[in-house]
Amino acid sequence: MAEKLVPVVCPYCGVGCRFYIKTVDGYPVGIEYATDIPGISNENGKLCPKGNAAVEYLLAKDRLKKPLKAKEQGKFVEISWSEAIKEVAERLKAYAKDDPNQLMFFGSARTFNEPNYLIQKLARMLGTNNVDHCARLCHAPTVTGLKQVFGAGAMTNTYKDIEEANVIFIIGHNYAETHPVGFRYVLKAKERGAKVIVADPRFTRTAWHADIFLQHYPGSDVALINGLIHVIIKEKLYDPKFVRERCVGFDEVVKAVEKFTPEFVEKVTGVPAELIVEAARTFATAGKGVITWAMGLTQHTHGTENVKLLGTLAAICGYQGKEGAGCSPMRGQNNVQGACDMAALPNVFPGYQAVTSEEKRKFFEEFWGVELSGEVGLTTVEAAYAVDEGKVKAYYVMGENPVISEANANHVMHVLEKLEFMVVQDIVPTPTMEFADIVLPAAAMLENEGSLTNTERRVQWSFQAAKPPGEARPDWWIISEIGKAVGFDKDGSKGFIYNDAADVLREINACTPQYRGITPERLKANLAGIHWPCPSPDHPGTRVLYKERFLTPDGKAHLAAVPEYKGPVELPDEEYPFLLTTYRYVGMYHTLTMTARSDALNKRWPEPLAEIHPDDAAKLGIKTGDWIKIETRRGVYPIKVKVTRTIKKGVVGVPWHWAANVLTNDALDPVAKIPETKACACRVAKISEEEAKKLMEKLPSIVPRIEVVKG
Amino acid sequence: MARKTIFIDFSKCIECRACEVACEREHNGKSFINVFEWQEMAAMALNCRHCETAPCVEVCPTNALYRDKDGAVILAPQRCIGCLMCGIVCPFGIPELDLINKVMGKCDLCAQRRAEGKEPACAATCPTDALIFGDFDEIQRKRREKFTERAIEVAKKAEKISLLGV
Ligand code: SF4
Ligand code: SF4
Ligand code: SF4
Fold first, then answer.
1. pLDDT at B162
2. ipTM value of the model?
3. Domain coordinates of chain B in residue numbers?
4. What burial letters (b/e) apply to A332-362, b meaning 16+ CB within 10 Å?
5. How many Å apart are CA A207 and CA A202, to the nearest integer?
6. A190 and chain B: CB distance < 8 Å anywhere?
7. Which DSSP string corresponds to A256-318?
């Protein structure tokens, strides 16, 4: 028996923890904590429950093992790889010949940098910039918002800086449950005496650790943050030197926040005025502060404004460009940052180089050896509406599950049904796959190797720990085969001929300035990875951004003035009297494709529960354990109730993993194009268990109705 | 040899249940640590305390419960007759009856891992250090140190303020 320990990166969240997979003769049997790798993001090898259960989903019985072709919806026959590749390539080519913008590609934040680089390269070489991925649904406002204020959209610091901060402001983010190992650094700061401020409509596990807790209504963030800035300016608690030397636009901010007095903000957000004042003072006078946020803040029609205001708040306090300070958007999946860096986005080439820039486009035309489109492509939600209009006809979906992850899921399903052609590449059957024409079985991340970029810009190499089942193949291999079959078979960067993932990374090094020095050789030798930007092979990587200047054209932070208070587009009314918000469970992950295939996790988090305040529950005549149906203008959702004082009165909270997106609103933020998943109006009624079961049949099924039939 | 055990800091537990999943993985699908929630929010992980004068060891009629060289209270299943005495006397209700084999089961402080020089799984994984594997005296000493550190810090601040004449 040959026992081996293979160093991998966790297949789940954006903390990007490392651990070892224990294998016996190449078969994964367990895990071991990485206590011997200094400097990784999970100090002392700590892991949350998902990391601990990581081997289980690899061994799931329903792993996809052969390419499939649909006979009718949901019914497939097995085909060979060569047939599958030929068919996909021919269909893609035909659409591209006609009009490349009929195609839409989805990259994936759950797979390595290399396949994400390749899928956008394929899309762009075919002539379209229609490529996007689920970062659109989580942190698009972070990218657009921070870019406007600081010049780039990534976390400006690292975990080490969270640990060293004196105050940590956590907003729209249940840090303890979404990124348990990242939360470690918050608690370590707190132990040193740092203050923790939490703003959330729910009293979460994170709020439990707060020194100051601001329980605001979902979607009232603009008012809350403006209120904090108002107090800081009024009481002259900001950093005048930093504002003078490194920021522009301060006077406009002063004007814009004028009306956001603590009293006004109290009315809009439901947070007592004294608490707003106390939070503002605590934050501004700490000397070193970090702001962290996630989807509770971004998934709004004013998501970009929220983020811009947070950037402004950090900047006026001087919390940028130094250690122990900064802005830390927390990414959900282990490679959201990487998929964005690799440009699985409709508006940029790798390294955030705008497709509309003549000069950048010239570079890539030369580099890839084809003519490229300079027209910004479609985002995920826009693509769905373009299908409705008959403009987009084919989807290539790599490792994504839009039926569960996109807002207004009923519309998404309607759209997928309407598509002429859809390829889904994944590791297990997903509800999205029910609509596919071709299914390509992919190797899971842990059965495969490559680089990933965690939420703090740390690029790490993950090694292959197990053999993929059946004929499942690595994502980079699948896309490169399709690329060659389409006809891009030239050598070097002009084609799709690669021997391994390292080959692809070398090409990324050559065209992505931030990754220039992050070579496969360096990553394999240094398991703790490298923080980008890393402009050359001898550069150590960058911990804190913007030490001297920001990345805006003039090098200054562009403070944002948002004088108008905007709440959610859909507010409670007589017909729909409650405000609905969504959240997640610590042991469940996104669309459940992986975690629902782990016994250990499934038995601990078996079902969703809707949180309702006792006063509301009394009015509705419901108690814990009852079935209810939640209804919005877009859908109906049956769920069991948990009556709890931890949620704000008037708000109903549901975990989104089990297809709750049939309810949510797909109204878009005009800049970031993110749908307003976090707040919409709803009504609630008690129902019987039978009725609940009946309603459930109409939901997208977590265990999909996919059948493989004979020839 | 100093006696080591797992210390639990309730104030830090985030109810992530990583400890349960880790223990379950190390012990063939059975977790010997349980995380409880009460009052809607407070959470607390509880496993065997490996008590100094362990009532379970004292009452076991067959000597199925014994102490290993690190001081952990261990159950030898081949000697256990499933009489449930240990479960009844344990103030925390830790020993549990394995319904299939009709013998008791309990936390063994991860004997296998300790033999390899590793920490018990639950403490190794706990993201917030709510669980710490350590020596009682040492942990107490650290807590005293931390307390003095804070006291000194406060004293220094007070001094500064009086120097400024505020
Ligand atoms: S915190 Fe995130 S990266 Fe770390 S083990 Fe948990 S899911 Fe994996
Ligand atoms: S691992 Fe730690 S924080 Fe998580 S439930 Fe167990 S004791 Fe609590
Ligand atoms: S010490 Fe080991 S056996 Fe005991 S509860 Fe922790 S993981 Fe389980």
1. 65
2. 0.91
3. 4-135
4. bbbbbbbbbbbbbbbbbbbbbbebeeeebbe
5. 8
6. no
7. HTTT--HHHHHHHH---HHHHHHHHHHHHTSSSEEEEE-HHHHSSTTHHHHHHHHHHHHHHTT
A624 touches B at CB < 8 Å = no
| Chain segment A505-550, per-residue pLDDT in tens | 999 999 999 999 999 999 999 999 999 999 999 999 999 999 999 9
Contact between B21 and A53 using a beta-carbon 8 Å cutoff: yes
Residue A187, min C-alpha distance to chain B (Å): 7
Cβ–ligand 2 distance for B18 under 6 Å, the answer yes
Q: How much of chain A exceeds pLDDT 70, in percent? A: 100
Which residues on A lie below 8 Å from B150 (Cβ)?
Answer: 193
A23-32: per-residue pLDDT in tens? 998 899 999 9
> Ligand 3 pocket check: which of B50, B108, B109 to mutate, most ligand atoms within 8 Å of Cβ?
B109
Residue A216 has pLDDT above 70, yes or no: yes
User: Closest Cα to residue A403, out of A589, A658, A598, A606?
Assistant: A658
The predicted pLDDT at position A574 comes to 93
Residues of B with CB under 8 A from a CB of A: 12, 14-18, 20-22, 24-25, 29, 40-41, 43, 124-129, 150, 153
- pLDDT tens string A393-432: 999 999 999 988 888 999 999 999 999 999 999 999 999 9
**Do B40 and A646 make contact, defined as CB atoms within 8 angstroms?**
yes
What strand order describes the sheet that includes A68-72?
Answer: A131-132, A103-106, A394-398, A421-426, A438-441, A68-72, A75-78, A707-708
- Nearest residue (by CA) to ligand 2, atom 1, is B126
pLDDT of residue B165 exceeding 70, the answer is: no
**Greater model confidence, B159 or A310:** A310
Sorted by sequence, the CB contacts under 8 Å of residue A128 that are 6+ apart come out as A96, A100, A101, A103, A105, A373, A377
Using CB atoms within 10 Å of the CB of residue B2, give its burial: 0 to 12 exposed, 13 to 18 middle, 19+ buried: exposed
Q: Quick check: B144 pLDDT over 70?
A: yes
pLDDT tier at B1 (50, 70, 90 boundaries)? very low
pLDDT value at residue A657 = 92
**A87 CA to chain B: closest CA distance, Å?**
43
Give me A271's structure tokens: 């947070």
Q: Are A144 and A347 in contact (CB under 8 A)?
A: no
Segment A273-278 mean pLDDT: 96
| pTM listed for this prediction | 0.92
Give the closest ligand to the alpha carbon of residue A13: 1
Domains of chain A: 3-59 (2.20.25.90), 68-133+334-456+471-513 (3.40.50.740), 156-330+553-558 (3.40.228.10), 578-697 (2.40.40.20)
Sign of CA pseudo-dihedral B116, B121, B125, B130? negative
**Class of the CATH domain delimited by B4-135:** alpha beta
Q: Closest Cα to atom 2, ligand 2: which residue?
A: B126
Atom of ligand 1 nearest to the CA of A11: 8
Percent of the residues in chain A that have a pLDDT greater than 90, as a whole number: 87
Q: What is the pLDDT of residues B94-139, one digit of tens each?
A: 999 988 889 999 999 999 999 999 999 999 999 999 999 988 888 8
Beta bridge partners of A198: A170, A213
The residue to which tokens 């009086």 are assigned? B162
Residues in chain B: 166
- Please give, rounded to a whole number of angstroms, the shortest distance from the CA of B81 to a CA of chain A: 29
Residues 376-395 of A with CB under 8 A from B: none
Compute, in angstroms, the gap from residue A19 CA to the centroid of ligand 2.
18
- A320: left (phi > 0), else alpha (psi -120 to 50), else beta? beta
Instruction: Name the residue among A218, A657, A534 with its Cα closest to residue A519.
Output: A534
Cβ-based contacts of A587 with chain B (< 8 Å): 16-17, 21
> Is residue B47 in contact with ligand 3, taking CB distance under 6 Å?
yes
